[in-house]
Amino acid sequence: MTTPDLETLVCQTRFSDDDLRRLLSLSDENDCNLLYRKAFEQTSKWHGNALFWRGLIEISNICTYDCRYCGLRKSNHRLHRYALSVDEIVDAATCALEAGYGSVVLQGGERTDPKFIGFVSEAVAAIHEKSRRMGFKRGCGITLSFGEQSIETYQRWKDAAGNPDAVRYLLRLETTNPILFRHIHGNGPRKKILAERFLALHDLRTAGYQVGTGVMIGIPGQTVDDLVKDIRTFERMDIDMIGMGPYLVSRQADMVAEGMMPEEPLLRLSRNMIAVTRLVLPKCNIAAATALETLHKSGRALGVLSGCNVMMPNIGPTRVRGDYSLYDRKAVTESEANANVALEKSILQLTGRTVAKNRLGSSLLFRERHRLLPD
Ligand code: SAH
Ligand code: SF4
Fold this sequence. Notes:
This protein has 375 residues and is an alpha/beta fold. It contains 14 helices and 11 strands.
């Protein structure tokens, strides 16, 4: 069998593993641009020209786990720890809704104690009520990202979120390679287990969430074959949304000696991964990760140009931004007054994409599965 030329390959709707390997490995600038253009075109075809925007609130950096790659890990005693109050969270959510983003994301370190579980329930319920008072008849969209929890906790948080059609959870697999997963999560008492992560994703589906996952790209020791398997896993699990970004080293974590990929090839690989995922899963929501912004000053715009259809600007209080240091040189995004307006403008200028105002932004896959109209 002859191998198709690149122009033909990117127009396919089905891809073999060899095709995916070839696309992920592209390095020539013209070839990469062809791939990105096709991914952007597919995004326009399925999702239109308006991006879903969600206000991101990093509610706490207190974590009881010890992932080796992450600056928030429990063993990092140099970090100043914080937790926002319910009022601060609701105020931030209100800013997002006033800006016309119909949806918020609450993220934080992983805790499973009853106090934390109750706190998240309270915050989520308060956001729901506030959004109803602000005119969202069934409540705004809410995405949670607090790691692995019991199915009872997932259920409780979903009930608190009020609008069962617009509640989502983001739990990255980080990598689907079991050996690499074990390596980056260490062997201590607070280690993570890949099988449990899969189970948690399954529980999230059972509890009725729109399920989001993703991986880090360019982890030391990760291969292109691993990335192919990651994409196949997203496909097999019928994942609704994907958050993927480059792996960036944190001096306050435990993988410094392993280094990281040089920035230019890392940015390219990240964009290739986003674009290839878009070609394989055209109906999925794909978010432009903040981590792209550490590699390039317009990193999220480059994400949009490679197939992302979701933006998650940070709208939490600026005083805590520096402390949510997952990795070194984490871009402190949206820190000035009117920063979101400036961001919307620059995204429009660089990509031509607009904001889907007051839309909850459920993924097309989820809407089709549940026969829902656009929200
Ligand atoms: N505690 C939750 C959510 C916060 S961490 C959880 O673990 O799911 C959110 C994400 O940050 C993680 O899923 C991981 O993919 C990403 N992250 C952590 N450290 C990182 C690093 N060094 N480089 C890039 N992404 C990182
Ligand atoms: Fe905690 Fe999440 Fe960081 Fe792991 S990745 S240490 S669970 S914040």
